Amino acid sequence: MKIQTAIPAAFIALLFAGCSVFSGKTSQDSVVLPMGERVTLTDGCLVYALPLTVFEFEITAEKRTEIPGPYAGYAAEMLGLDRIITTQAEKWRLAGIRLNTADEIDPSQYYIIQGTTLMQTNMLALRKSGLVLDINPGIYDRTVNPAMQEEGDYSGLLFPDRGAYEYGTTKTDTAYRVVKVDTAFIRVPYLVQKKKGMTTEEQAREAADRLLELREGRHMILTGETNVFPQDGAAIDEINRLEREYTALFAGKTWTEIRKYSIWVTPDLSMAGRMTTVFTFSEAGGVDLSAGANGIAVEMQIIPSGKTGELNLVVRPESPDKKTSPGDRLYYRIPDVADITVSMGDERLLTDRRLVYQFGKKVALPSNFIIGR
Q: Which has the closest alpha carbon to 78: 208, 243, 200?
């Protein structure tokens, strides 16, 4: 749909906010020039810049780690467990992606307003509307997420209690030594203690027995068949904790880590309508920001709406008896609406609509619309 050439009332109010009426001012009284090598600053000049839209992608990835238990080989035989963890594995999952936008100064769009007389401008109104930016570092005083955060990392011993009452046995045996007495030799007995460690199967058997005892004890407490344990929730909670720990000895343990990334992308016109790789993701390695990484590319597509395509029609036509100097204009930028789609393969991860300044029009208005005495 084409944009109407008539100026809306709100836009007219914006242009004239804070302005004074042009009153016999020549084009040499005030000049607006792009900052460059041949432009010098003098006292009383005003420097401003045009805004630039930057995308911030907040990415949340989840790493799932699986560790088999030390008695995994006896799970089916001693406890009847199936579908247990048998091998150590790590698997990544893309949990979410969020798009934020921020306005920054476009380093290629600095302008200088030079004046030889006292002048009044409506730059404040344009700045409040976001159409221009003053050279104010305050726009960068925002909280920036660190490149990576880790949450939920598992620490400590994986299996501190193997479930056995003791992990070694002591065997006492009688040994003899020969002692010479006068002309004869006699055998003198003495005791020898030998320590022997338990095999993995023996430890698994004891852990399974203790697990079954816990289940039986919990059943007796819940049914009121015993008065040995306290008749409250503390006993049940502790039994449940021990049961989880002993079951993990056979079934294995699983935990997740949440990692967050912040990726900044500055869109330009060359990205419009085509796919741009933001990062690479794989189940084995997670998020990878390096070029040429293995995995599936997470791509962004930006489609500008083109609604600002005809906004240059609002420029005031030159008067036949007085031509406007090329420097007698004030430049500002109007953003365009863009549709942003982020996808990974055939899966669409994000769809959003945002204002992007660099996809819009850079409009130049005659200075008598802006500057007055």
A: 208
**Structure tokens given for 147:** 């490149």
| d(C-alpha 364, C-alpha 311), whole Å | 10
- Dump pLDDT digits (tens) for 293-340: 788 999 999 999 887 766 554 444 555 555 545 556 677 888 889 999
* 296-304/347-366 β-pairing: unpaired
Residue with tokens 């990484």, as numbered in its chain:
293
Q: What is the C-alpha separation between 69 and 264, in angstroms, rounded?
A: 42
* Count of domains observed in the chain: 1
Q: Which two tokens stand for residue 288?
A: 């990878």
pLDDT at 247: 92
User: Could you tell me if residue 20 is inside a domain?
Assistant: no
86: Cα within 13 Å, side-chain hemisphere: 8
Q: Which pLDDT tens digit goes with each residue over 238-282? A: 889 999 999 999 999 998 889 999 999 999 888 888 999 999 999
- 10 Å CB burial of residue 30 (0-12, 13-18, 19+) is buried
Residue 196 contacts residue 171 (beta carbons within 8 Å)? yes
Q: Amino acid letter at 127?
A: R
The answer to whether residues 201 and 240 touch, using CB atoms and an 8 Å cutoff, is no
Query: 42-66 burial by CB neighbour count: b if 16+ within 10 A, else e?
Result: eeeebebbbbbbbbbbebbbbbeee
pLDDT digits (tens, 9 = 90+) for 187-209: 878 787 777 777 888 889 988 99
Q: Find the domain containing 235 and state its range.
A: 168-255
Q: Using alpha carbons, select from 120, 5, 28 the residue that is nearest to residue 323.
A: 28
Q: Is residue 286 part of a domain?
A: no
Tokens found for residue 11: 């836009």
The verdict on residue 180 lying in a domain is yes
Give the 3-state secondary structure of residue 45.
coil
Lowest mean pLDDT among 124-138, 157-171, 205-219: 124-138
How high is the pLDDT of residue 318? Answer: 53
d(CA 90, CA 257): 11
Tell me how many degrees the CA angle 108-5-10 measures, rounded to the nearest 5.
75
CB atoms within 10 A of CB 71: 27
Residue 237 lies in a domain: yes
Q: Is the pTM of this model over 0.70?
A: no
Number of residues assigned to the chain:
373
